[in-house]
Amino acid sequence: MFPDELKTASSIHSNASHEQKESTIRYSGASMYKPADTATPLLVNKNRLADVGYSYCSATPAQMIAPFHSRVPQAAKAFRDSLSLALFIVLCVAFASQAWPQQLPASSAARGETVMLDAWFNSQQRRNTAGQEEYFHYKWNDDSDSGFSLFGQMFASHGATLDTLYQAPTLKRLSGAQFYIIVSPDIPAKNPQPHYVQPQDANQVAEWVKQGGVLLLMENDPANADISHLNLMADRFGIHFDEVLKRHVIGDQFAPGLIPVAGGGPVFQHSYTLYMKDTCAISLKGAAKPLLEDKAGIVMATAKYGKGTVVAVVDPWLYNEYTDPRKLLPRQDNYAAGKEFVSWLLKQAQHDISLATDPHSMAIPTRAKDSQ
Q1: How far apart are CA 357 and CA 362, in angstroms?
Q2: 3-class secondary structure for 285-299?
Q3: What burial class does residue 127 get, using C-beta atoms within 10 Å of its C-beta: 0-12 exposed, 13-18 middle, 19+ buried?
Q4: Residue 10 DSSP class
Q5: φ/ψ (deg, to 5) at 188
Q6: Considering only CA atoms, which of 372, 361, 371 is closest in space to residue 212?
Q7: Residues 6 or more apart from 21 whose CB is under 8 A from it?
Q8: pLDDT of 315-337, one tens digit each?
Q9: Fewer CB under 10 Å: which end of the chain, C or N?
């Protein structure tokens, strides 16, 4: 006898339309089917199944799942490949985080202030991969060895805005900046059409410093930079770059370029070993004073001028080639020392700069006075 329950189902489904059928029961083509969870086979009458509206399938369970079995190895391989790719990406990110300096912890010490980098006295250009001319060599966006991208990060980490001046400096063009950096001015061997410092340039920059600006001059050795014209500006502050070669390094004989810093000084509170390869020299007069010296002479110097400050260095020592910690030789601390140098430099900006009384001059925006 067909079970009473199936008879009830037959009565219900026989009165329902074909569109209302919600499920399909598929059984083995054999007259006997033994589910896995029962010890007693079920007697299946395929004719009675048809009577109550269920369909009948002659495929065995093994045949039904065979297509899925064939796809299991493919799915497993895809899963393994995905895991391998994910692991590779994680390892790459981990290596990069250790090998390349990360953005320093956020600071508001220079928020609202602008660090202007010269691209007039050093205006070297090259053709990039897109066939376009681009500025390079001591530039914020230059990520190569010759660039200042890591130096720029040191300022940006304190909240400073980085900018570049592609024209001759004037009081008006510098009016929005608190810091102005001139690095290794061009010579014909580096730039066929160099822009030499002129007396009017020195006058404009001196007036800007007098109103509270911070000027950083980073010279180079005589074979690679113009020194005589930059002295038109530096001499205004009692600082003179001497056209002599100091700290000359030949090949991998790095010792002449290594500069020990004991710490506890006006700029560097911690001990470091700086590296400056092939530099000029500095001599001082008037109120200018040394900030750092070694056995070869003055390395860094400073002078106050009006409300502003001038800082001079014998080398552009913070370019990527010698601030990239992945470079094993020479062993030096330029990156770590550079961070402390930037922190000190930021403190030289005047906190309160009054508006200029000269109606033709432009006052320099300032940072808010530090709370005590």
Answers
A1: 9
A2: CCCCEEEEEECCEEE
A3: exposed
A4: H
A5: -55, -30
A6: 361
A7: 13, 53
A8: 999 999 999 988 888 999 999 99
A9: C
CB atoms under 10 Å from CB of 34, counted, come to 12
Instruction: Tell whether the torsion through CA atoms of 241, 243, 246 and 248 is positive or negative.
Output: positive
Cβ distance 371 to 181 under 8 Å? no
Per DSSP, 33 falls in state E
177 token code pair: 């900046």
Domains detected in the chain: 4-58 (no CATH), 110-346 (3.40.50.880)
Residue 102 burial class via C-beta count within 10 angstroms: exposed 0-12, middle 13-18, buried 19 and up: exposed
**Residue tagged 């004991």 (tokens):** 262
Q: Model confidence over 200-257: pLDDT tens digits?
A: 999 999 999 999 999 999 999 999 999 999 999 999 999 999 999 999 999 999 999 9
CA Rg, the chain, in Å? Answer: 38
What letter would DSSP give residue 173? T
231: tokens are: 């002295």
pTM over 0.90, yes/no: no
